[in-house]
Specification:
Length: about 325
């Protein structure tokens, strides 16, 4: 069986596929488990504090419980906790490969990081080129699913979220993922158009499983999932270093704001919900976001991978009600 290599957030997955290993986004394993709390509890039993981000605990729990031995850890450009997590995993005897997205988006520095990763996995540039081309075809299908969400209004916000968030590892098999995407596209084309109020969801992917269903039942349609769309790398430059510097997520808030403002216009979004994770340093970015986003803005916070609490439900209901009145629908 091919070796599984875990990772802590989106990385240039083309290199892992070219190395014939099975890439595995640890976040996806954690959140799609039947009992994600199982992984958090494992981390807490091993001494992780209660008052820290549960995504980090979930990642740790998955590595330990699934026996993943090799992990690519993004130590710059993702999460302020990853360095300590990497050290704990090393201490547990795991092989950890650090990868960095340079904060200033310096393409030469990123090129060096890509080279280092390729050399670690002993892949040749020719092999990477071949895989990149095949993966680009899958990325184009994901872009089409996104277009079918905001332009044709045929895909739900939750489906959009799932297709794009899973693109980080393409469920370990990009050819199969591409085939699934083709069948999904054919299926949604027979649906009726959704004419609920179009809104966007920004911030890290939400941890609560029922958020999309709850909000969409109230009368809005989530047609923009900021971070999940970024994970799908909707950039089709021929050079990998260029694609991964156009990718906004690791490079600070101002580059993200530019992308969000462009998509509000393009997708005609009437509101933005900012999801923040409890104990995440990124929550502070809310200060800048709420001062720069020009449409009605709501910030909600999640903590555990459980259903929405009643306070958040009331706030979401009031927000959607306000949008319905404002838009006169
Ligand atoms: S939600 Fe924030 S703290 Fe948690 S893993 Fe993501 S970036 Fe790190």
């Amino acid at each position: 069986m091919d070796k599984v290599v875990g990772f802590t957030t989106t990385i240039p997955v083309e290199i892992l596929f070219a190395a014939d290993v099975i890439p595995c986004d640890l976040n996806n394993i954690f959140i799609s488990a039947e009992e994600p709390m199982f992984y958090i509890e494992r981390a807490e039993r091993d001494g992780f504090p209660r008052n820290m981000c549960n995504w980090v605990k979930g990642i740790y729990g998955v590595v330990m419980e699934k026996g993943i031995e090799e992990i690519v850890a993004v130590v710059e450009g993702d999460c302020s906790n990853t360095q300590a997590l990497m050290e704990i995993l090393k201490h547990r005897g795991k092989k950890v490969i650090p990868f960095s997205f340079p904060y200033d988006r310096d393409r030469d520095v990123l090129k060096r990081e890509l080279k280092k990763l390729a050399s670690y996995f002993s892949v040749t540039p020719e092999r990477i080129k071949k895989v990149e081309k095949e993966i680009e075809d899958v990325r184009r299908l994901l872009e089409e699913i996104d277009r079918l969400t905001w332009q044709e209004r045929l895909v739900t916000g939750y489906e959009n979220h799932l297709w794009l968030v899973r693109s980080s590892d393409m469920m370990g098999d990009y050819k199969k993922y591409g085939g699934m995407a083709e069948r999904f596209i054919a299926e949604v084309k027979t649906r009726k158009k959704n004419d609920a109020i179009p809104i966007g969801m920004i911030g890290v992917p939400p941890i609560q499983p029922d958020l999309f269903e709850f909000i969409e039942k109230k009368g809005v349609h989530v047609v923009f999932n900021e971070t999940q769309r970024q994970f799908s790398l909707p950039y089709f430059s021929k050079r990998m270093a260029e694609r991964y510097t156009l990718y906004t997520y690791p490079y600070g808030i101002f580059y993200r704001v530019k992308d969000i403002l462009g998509e509000i216009k393009r997708r005609n979004l009437k509101g933005i919900v900012h999801y923040v994770q409890a104990f995440c340093y990124r929550s502070m970015e809310d200060v800048i976001l709420r001062e720069t986003i020009p449409v009605p803005f709501l910030t909600i916070e999640g903590d555990l991978p459980k259903g929405l609490d009643s306070r958040t439900k009331i706030r979401l209901e009031a927000y959607v009600e306000m949008l319905i009145q404002k838009e006169g629908v």
